[in-house]
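Q: How would the structure tokens look for this protein?
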Amino acid sequence: MASFENLCAKRPDLDFAEYWQHDSDTELYHFIGKDIMYFHALFWPALLSGANFRTPTAIFVHGFLTIDGQKMSKSRGTFIKARTYLNHLPPEYLRYYFAAN
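A: Here is the predicted structure in token form.
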């Protein structure tokens, strides 16, 4: 919200309230990881409502990327940066993987 409010301050064609006021017709979608679902599906909408802002239209939660059934992890050495991947393979494969999973 703060980043969007900053953008609105720099662009007179954007009105923060038009998007975030309680009765806004704008659709607002959240895309989050399952590890922060509890906060973003329960507390965040309650805080927004209490502050008289609109709540999300829908919340989409994605699972973890896994290697051999375990969450990718830098400490386990199983984390792959997208840039490293793209240095070796075409981006279409990565896009398909994210869309399919």
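The first strand starts at residue 29 and ends at 33.

The chain has five helices and four strands.

Upvote if useful.
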